[in-house]
Amino acid sequence: MLSRNQSKLITSLRLSKFRQEEGLFVVEGVKMVGELLASDFAIKTIFATQEWISGAHLPPSRYLVEIEEINDSDLEKVSNLTTPNQVLAVAFIKQSKAFKCCDNEWILALDQIRDPGNMGTIIRTADWFGIQRIVASTGTVDIWNPKVVQASMGSVFRIPVHYTDLDQFLREAVEHSPVYGALLDGESLSDATLGMNGVLVIGNESHGISKQIQSLVSHRITIPSAIPGVQGRAESLNASMATGIFCYEINRQRQLKE
Known about the structure:
Blueprint: H1 4-12, H2 16-22, E1 24-28, H3 30-38, E2 43-48, H4 50-53, E3 67-69, H5 72-78, E4 87-92, E5 106-110, H6 116-128, E6 133-137, H7 146-152, E7 161-164, H8 166-173, E8 179-188, E9 198-202, H9 211-214, E10 219-222, H10 239-257
Parallel strand pairs: 2-3, 5-6, 5-9, 6-7, 8-9, 8-10
Antiparallel strand pairs: 1-4, 2-4
Helix pairs in contact: 6-7, 6-10
């Protein structure tokens, strides 16, 4: 049974302020907790129903993890999901390490991505297409937001995300790697030559890449619409959808060169 303090802690972790203060975040559901257990993230406590506990979900390396049995009613009280699913884990936030761009990797740079669903989907997309890491402006949504964690489907445990001064990062990066910006007035993606390394900047859902960050872009690229210039059609693509198309082309060209 959940204690009052445990319940208070879990619900408080829905807010970024308390996640940062405690250094903790919440993972929910059988699949997502399974992804967490398969990662190298340290786990504080797992709260699970008898059904999950009897399912032998723990890998040998995790046998010492603290598990507390709770009932469905307790789980429902603290869950952030519409339909709670057997298990909830409280895990420790891993501190990201400093790094510099190198000449054999692609980095995704996010400028003020605010929507948790978009953020989680972008992380999942980067994972699928082999992007090694993500950098994000300080105004970008926190990756340990429960909705980001859920939308990433476990990829948040595999792709390093570094929050930084994006302006300063790109000023240094452009000395070593081409910086591509996803912009409506750019060169068509189908005509662009993408190398073995680079930085791809994706802008805010509503306003795109900020003017200051645009000034640091060395290559402006775009995804051309099927019928350019026709009014009454969509003005642009969703940020996570556009990221998927750009990452597909980066991966396709990289494979052709290998």
